[in-house]
Amino acid sequence: MKKEVVTLKKLSQILDLSTSTVSRALNDHPDISAATKEKVKNLAKKMHYVPNIFAKGFRQHKTNIIGVIVPNITHYFTTTMVRGILEEAAIKGYRVIISESNNDIAKQTEMLNTMLQFGVDGMLVSLTKMTREIDDVLETLNKLPLILFDKVSSKIPCTQVTINDEQAAFDAVEHLINIGKKRIAIIKEQDFSYTSQKRFAGYLRALKENNIEVDEKLIMSVDDITLENGKQMTSHLLSIKHPPDAIFAITDSAAVGVIQTLKKFNIKIPETIAVVGFSNSRLSTVIEPNLTTIDQPGETIGKNAVKHLIEEIETKSVTISNKMIEIKGALIIRDSTFKA
Amino acid sequence: MKKEVVTLKKLSQILDLSTSTVSRALNDHPDISAATKEKVKNLAKKMHYVPNIFAKGFRQHKTNIIGVIVPNITHYFTTTMVRGILEEAAIKGYRVIISESNNDIAKQTEMLNTMLQFGVDGMLVSLTKMTREIDDVLETLNKLPLILFDKVSSKIPCTQVTINDEQAAFDAVEHLINIGKKRIAIIKEQDFSYTSQKRFAGYLRALKENNIEVDEKLIMSVDDITLENGKQMTSHLLSIKHPPDAIFAITDSAAVGVIQTLKKFNIKIPETIAVVGFSNSRLSTVIEPNLTTIDQPGETIGKNAVKHLIEEIETKSVTISNKMIEIKGALIIRDSTFKA
DNA sequence: CTGAAAGCGCTTACAG
DNA sequence: CTGAAAGCGCTTACAG
């Protein structure tokens, strides 16, 4: 199965040069004459020489591998970020190792450790929902460059790349206000979720700036922001004394559940109750009426995260960089609300 | 940034043993006394010793990395396979490097090569659609264990894991026949797509076994089986002299396009035209009417592929294994057809 | 401009 | 049961 492998040594024997020279020629070292370089490179190409990355990495304490941890790889939005990460990393000559934490803190910790042991040059982490428990991330951060993306936490002192959740949520809710809605419900996650917190903050600010009073009865918090929970919360919202005239679900999945339930009860969308989601997932143009939502540029987020990580890896700056990079999300208005 | 790292040497100095002994103790070599083992292991744990995987891999010509290449990582079905791969690989102590070929032959070739150079122990490949050009895959197969999954090709002599496309398509079409449909159209890809070929074969067999004549006018072939193409082909099918009374689209996306177009023309589903898709994607329960489709157990496929690959890696058997593993898909009947 | 030699951290055949 | 030594394939400070 294993075919004989071409090494530096073999090349050097054939060319009657030392391995040092061959190595330097291949790496374009300025000391080497142009003639030698060409000779070496030609032979290398002819013999399909590929450097043994492990010997190289071992020698240089560098693996050119980036570790990525995401909570759930089956989310469409996550895959768009992953795509951006893969693309940008490939361009810069890095490989990517991906793991899924399944929103499980213990699993996340285990992954941080195995990636560490594996010798990745840096890590890109999208946190589990339990952002309270960040000790292990902090510890990892002490050992190598680490950047948070998408699911981030202000409690971790490192560069973070995310969409501007607060502003995007603000835009979504203000849009509802602009089309005349006054009793706007929100379906969000519990407060441990940083993303949910920020979107909720945007919701509150939009109400406040438009002098609409907050009604606690319209604020639904669930453990897990799924389609199913979207349905349940909607049923509940329909049963209260003064039901809402709009529902802002902080994910598209949940918003789809909202719409399905409203339709079940023959409630007019958006006339009686308007609906806004968040993500611009593929579901949003299949559900009827099509869902007004926030488009999140996943690829851009992924690429940005990689760029900053590689910068930190390659500059090896001891200064801890702690940038907050916010990528803009855009409100996309569809039939589940009105054009203002 | 870099903290002092604990090596075998350091441990051996502290314990006043040779590195050989420490190495063997850590690896549970039978020669080492239980007492020594315990002493060594305790210290290793206390000092948070982690072996340098690169030194190890370099030494043993083994990296414990599996390379994965998929055409498109944003497809939901693909992510479920990836999830299965990650899970199973982690259990067996392997890491996974993922790349996306974007259905581009040149990119796939490039990825095969960089993964090779990267020293992966084996590869899991889901082919681009252009399965005609397989030279590079064949060449890679000569150098290390490689297994095809999902998008496979009978022309490549290696183990392949896929769902039983032919039978699943047969079941789907026979279901249409059972509910009384006689003019069943298919929307498929061009013949270079192996998956499409197999599903088409199932379609043909179902017609044949039920004595239904094939009508070439009902066979639509597109370059790319997208939602948009599903729409276009449906418009076309509606315009022909004798339109179909059922449409089998070989992916859910296309089937969604079919349904959207039929609804636009106020055609009753399933009474006038029934629709079947393939994949059981999330769209299938959001589109209305809900889509009858084939459920593909992605995680099972992923896990199976990893299992077989690791077996090949670890047995290093020179015998080329060439198993065809077919995972069963299941027909899920929803409102876009009738219960038989 | 080129080469000899050391060393990265580990494993393992050989010796005792 | 333990150790000394070689070697995996590369890079690089040192020497010339």
UniProtKB/TrEMBL annotation, chains A, B:
Transmembrane stretches, start-end: none
UniProt-recorded Gene Ontology molecular function terms: DNA binding
Domain HTH lacI-type: 6-60
Annotated keywords: DNA-binding, Transcription, Transcription regulation
SMART domains cross-referenced by the UniProt entry: HTH_LACI (SM00354)
PANTHER family (UniProt xref): HTH-TYPE TRANSCRIPTIONAL REGULATOR GALS (PTHR30146:SF109), LACI-RELATED TRANSCRIPTIONAL REPRESSOR (PTHR30146)
The protein's name: LacI family DNA-binding transcriptional regulator
Gene source species: Algibacter miyuki
